Amino acid sequence: MNKFQQFEITVAELNQLNSPEGIFLDNDNSIYIADSNNHCIVKWKLNLNTGQIIAGRNIYCRGLTTDKNGFIYASDCENNEVKRWKQGDKKGKLVTGGNNQN
Prior knowledge:
Layout: E1 20-25, E2 31-35, E3 40-44, E4 52-56, E5 61-66, E6 72-76, E7 81-85, E8 93-97
Antiparallel strand pairs: 1-2, 2-3, 3-4, 5-6, 6-7, 7-8
């Protein structure tokens, strides 16, 4: 017998995302999604129907996380780098990589 209750909730429609690659859930139950082909990171707050672009617009992101200070860290697989954003920043700060080698 499965100990976990199984259920699903749709948090984003297909027309809102283009190749979502990474996901992160914070302590407030907000969902962060690395929206690779839209080159941004989107945040969905619990019980809302639309997401908010909180970082990027220029990143091919596949993975992401946040830290205790609210910074968002995302991998950019096209530029071989990891960047850090504060929510709302248009341009992230390079943390590591960035040598553009494939």
